[in-house]
Amino acid sequence: MNSLKQFAALTFTIILWSTSLCAERRPDISLPFEVFNNLIILNLQVNGSPPLKFIFDTGSEHSLFFERGLADLLKIKISRTIQIYGSDLSRPIDAFVGRDVNFEAMNKMAMKADIIVLDENIFQFTEYLGTRISGIIGNSLFRSKVIELDFDHLMINVYSPNGYNPDRHGYNEIAGRWIKGKPYIESDVSFTDSVREKKLLLLDTGASIGLLLYAEKMDTSYMPSKLIPGMMGMGLGGPIQGYIGRIGEIQIGERRLKNVVTHFQHIQHRDTLTDLSGKEGIVGNLLISRFNVVLDYHFQHIYLKTNRSSKKKVPVDRSGLYIVATGENLNEFEIRRIMPGTAGEEAGLEVGDKIIRFNRFSARNFTLGDINRHLSNSKRKKIHLTILRNGEKIKKTLFLRDII
């Protein structure tokens, strides 16, 4: 009889344990996402609207809605005026607070939260990404939650505190800290074989680049000897300018990434006064997407594990061209900037050229993402372009090569 009781108790325990595991795996909310130009895009309904596209940005404390007029149409309740700064430490921007906004995904209630509403859309994200962007989803939307950022399945899974154990799913906790609701990691950065420094870096999914370091917070003698000026991406204040080079290695968690393309940005003294985090740079989504990530906003832990793309070569532009999508359907493409000394300059392309044929096909058959993928293909040698310049059609051949 005792044996039967022990067996029953053991069976009951196993059932409870397996049931708890099944319950743990089931998130409160699952939010599918897309990736455009290395940025995470969520499709969310706002106060019952049709789906709108938002950038998921762990570098932003708050969520933003770009257009006051659309906010009024969606009956978002507006309260006080505030000023905000972006993670790029640019100029302050006037905004309003929208109260108790309902966010839905796939016609199911996701969550309710306040959102910051800009008076007008001052961003260029739509033309930069080639898809219409209505705002930014920041960390405040997930306060007191645990999220799993799953790049393998393009899903953000949202859990209640204690509702998910990352250790059981192959994640490893990494050294870091949380400041004003934002996740920061402590990483070893090797400039050469003999020069290594530990850096505090913002884990910033709202940055499309891989690694950015602030020149003012490092020994400039460690900077690569070969640097080229260029645009590093978009920030709240517009395009971010700086220099691009390669460093020896960065360690993120247990993984070492070698020969990393790195952006170096000069920041003004006044900018350091607005940012008290002490961060020395940013790890952007180009590197973050090599991992699946768990962010525990409640207990303030950060977990990583490598994903399917971790061993693939990190795609880097090989043209030197900064191209934007224009036109009503965002299928017209214009060269907005050209990095000096790159394939784009050598091909004789000019700022303002409009690409009308790409690899002998009409450019309207491509998205901006398609074009950027072709220009980042390490196996492709050349691209055939037909451009429109001052009303004249001109054929050009772009011989792709590594920029740095």
Question: Could you name the key traits of this structure?
Answer:
404 residues; mainly beta; Cathepsin D, subunit A, domain 1; Pdz3 Domain; 6-stranded mixed barrel; 7 helices; 45% strand
Write up this protein:
The protein is mainly beta. It folds into 3 domains: 29-157, Cathepsin D, subunit A, domain 1; 165-306, Cathepsin D, subunit A, domain 1; 321-399, Roll (Pdz3 Domain). Helices cover 14% and strands 45% of the residues. The protein has 7 helices and 27 strands. The chain has helices at residues 2-25, 68-73, 125-129, 269-274, 285-288, 343-346, 368-375, and strands spanning 29-36, 39-46, 52-56, 64-65, 77-84, 93-105, 108-118, 135-137, 146-150, 155-159, 172-173, 176-179, 182-190, 196-204, 211-214, 228-235, 238-252, 255-265, 281-284, 291-296, 301-306, 321-326, 332-338, 354-358, 361-362, 382-389, 392-399. Strands 2-3-8-4-7-6 form a 6-stranded mixed barrel. A 6-stranded mixed barrel has the order 13-14-19-15-18-17. Strands 22, 23, 24, 25, 26 and 27 form a 6-stranded antiparallel sheet that branches. The longest helix has 24 residues, at 2-25. The chain is globular, with a radius of gyration of 23 Å. The N and C termini lie far apart (76 Å). Mean pLDDT is 86; it is low at 7-23.
CATH superfamily of the largest domain: Acid Proteases
The tally of beta strands, per DSSP, is 27
Strand content: over 45%
Helix content: 10-25%
Q: Indicate the radius of gyration in whole angstroms.
A: 23 Å
Helical stretch tally: 7
What's the architecture of the largest domain in CATH terms?
Beta Barrel
CATH topology of the largest domain: Cathepsin D, subunit A, domain 1
Largest sheet: 6 strands, mixed, barrel
Any idea what the shape is? globular
The averaged pLDDT comes out at 86
Number of domains: 3
- Order the strands across the largest sheet as they lie in space: 2-3-8-4-7-6
Report the top-level CATH class of the largest domain: Mainly Beta
Residue stretches low in confidence (pLDDT < 50, at least 5 long) are 7-23
How does the helix and strand content classify structurally? mainly beta
Distance between the termini: 76 Å
